[in-house]
C-alpha cells in the first residue's frame, strides 16, 4: 500500500491572505485532520465524504487530486490513472455519478465503482467466487455494510448510515449529557480507540479526557471508563446488530447455513472496537473473527477487483 490517509481537507478561506477569490487548498489527509476543531479563523477543515458518498464535490476533487499527486511521489504511477472506488450499496444513482465526476475532474482517466461490502470481502480473503455463503460486516467511518456474498456477487445486503463517525458523536453526546462536558471530535475518537468497548462485560479500564464545561465554558478534565463508552455506543451498535439480523432473516436458507458453519468476518476500522465479537455472538449466535488489517480490507479488495468487470458493476 502506497498511501493511507483520512478523507479530510483544509482550505484557506477566500480573502484570508489568498490570492484567488476562491478558497485555496492548505492541507490534506493527516495534516488536515490534525486541524479539525483547531482551525484559526482563516482556515476551514472539512470532510468531503459523508456516509460514504460525496458531501462537497469541490473538496472531494481537490482531495483526490492531492492523493494522486502524493502517490506519484511514492510509486511509479504513469500519466494515465485508473481507479476503482468503493461505494455504499445504498448509494443512489446521483451519488454514484457524483463520485465518478469528482474523480474525472481530478484527472483520473478511468473510473470503476465496486460496492464496499464486496470489496471488503475480497480484501479479507473470503472465497467470494465460490458457491458458498460468506458474510461480511464492514463498519466504516460513515456506513456499515452487512452482506452475504456467493459466486462473485452480493446475494443480500443491508447498508445503514452508521459507522465510526457516529460512534464518536454518540460518545460526545453521552459525555455531555452525563457529565456536562463537551468533548471535541478527535478527543472522542481517541477515547474510543483507547478504551472503547461494545459491552460492559469486561474488566473496567479508564482514561482521562479534557473538554469544555457546558455551563461555564471552562476546561474540564474527567475520567471516562470503557463502561461509559459501552453505554454511549449502545444505540448505534443496536442498529448494526439489527442490520445483521435483517440480512440473516432475508438471505437464502442454504447460505445462512453456510454462515452458521463458517462464521462472520468483521472488516473496517469499526471492527477493532473491543468485544464487538462477543456482542454479535450474544445477539445472533454467530461466531465472528476480525480480518487481518480490517481498516484497509475494502481498499485492498478494490485493488484486486480492478479490471474485473463482473465485480465492478456498482455503477
UniProtKB/TrEMBL annotation:
GO molecular function, one term: ATP binding
Binding site for ATP: 141-143, 189-192, 269-272
Protein location: Cytoplasm
CDD domains attached to this UniProt entry: ASKHA_NBD_MreB-like
Matches recorded under SUPFAM superfamilies: Actin-like ATPase domain (SSF53067)
Gene Ontology biological process: cell morphogenesis; regulation of cell shape
A Pfam family assignment: MreB_Mbl
Superkingdom in the source lineage: Bacteria
Keyword list, A-Z: ATP-binding, Cell shape, Cytoplasm, Nucleotide-binding
GO cellular component: cytoplasm
Function of the molecule: Forms membrane-associated dynamic filaments that are essential for cell shape determination. Acts by regulating cell wall synthesis and cell elongation, and thus cell shape. A feedback loop between cell geometry and MreB localization may maintain elongated cell shape by targeting cell wall growth to regions of negative cell wall curvature.
Family to which this protein belongs: Belongs to the FtsA/MreB family.
Quaternary assembly: Forms polymers.
Protein name (record): Cell shape-determining protein MreB
Gene that encodes it: mreB
Amino acid at each position: 500500500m502506497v498511501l493511507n490517509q483520512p478523507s479530510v481537507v483544509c482550505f484557506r478561506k477566500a480573502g484570508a491572505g489568498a490570492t484567488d477569490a476562491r478558497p485555496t487548498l492548505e492541507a490534506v489527509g493527516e495534516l488536515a485532520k490534525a486541524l479539525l476543531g483547531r482551525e484559526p479563523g482563516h482556515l476551514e477543515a472539512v470532510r468531503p465524504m459523508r456516509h460514504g458518498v460525496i458531501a462537497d464535490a469541490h473538496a472531494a476533487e481537490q482531495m483526490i487530486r492531492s492523493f494522486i499527486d502524493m502517490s506519484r511521489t511514492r510509486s511509479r504511477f504513469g500519466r494515465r490513472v485508473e481507479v476503482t472506488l468503493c461505494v455504499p450499496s445504498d448509494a443512489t444513482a446521483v451519488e454514484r455519478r457524483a463520485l465518478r465526476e469528482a474523480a474525472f475532474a481530478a484527472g483520473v482517466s478511468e473510473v470503476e465503482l465496486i460496492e464496499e461490502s464486496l470489496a471488503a470481502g475480497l480484501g479479507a480473503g473470503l472465497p467470494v467466487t465460490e458457491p458458498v455463503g460468506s458474510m461480511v460486516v464492514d463498519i466504516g467511518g460513515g456506513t456499515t455494510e452487512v452482506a452475504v456474498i456467493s459466486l462473485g456477487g452480493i446475494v443480500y445486503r443491508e447498508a445503514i448510515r452508521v459507522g465510526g463517525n457516529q460512534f464518536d458523536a454518540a460518545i460526545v453526546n453521552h459525555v455531555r449529557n452525563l457529565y456536562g462536558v463537551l468533548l471535541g471530535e478527535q478527543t472522542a475518537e481517541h477515547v474510543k480507540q483507547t478504551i472503547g468497548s461494545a459491552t460492559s462485560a469486561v474488566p473496567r479500564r479508564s482514561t482521562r479526557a479534557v473538554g469544555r464545561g457546558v455551563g461555564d465554558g471552562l476546561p474540564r478534565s474527567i475520567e471516562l471508563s470503557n463502561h461509559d463508552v459501552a453505554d454511549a455506543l449502545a444505540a448505534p451498535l443496536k442498529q448494526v446488530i439489527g442490520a445483521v439480523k435483517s440480512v440473516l432473516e432475508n438471505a437464502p436458507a442454504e447460505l445462512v447455513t453456510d454462515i452458521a458453519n463458517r462464521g462472520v468476518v468483521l472488516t473496517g476500522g469499526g471492527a477493532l472496537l473491543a468485544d464487538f465479537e462477543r456482542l454479535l455472538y450474544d445477539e445472533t449466535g454467530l461466531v465472528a473473527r476480525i480480518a487481518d488489517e480490517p481498516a484497509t480490507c475494502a481498499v485492498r479488495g478494490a485493488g484486486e477487483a480492478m479490471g474485473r468487470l463482473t465485480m465492478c458493476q456498482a455503477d
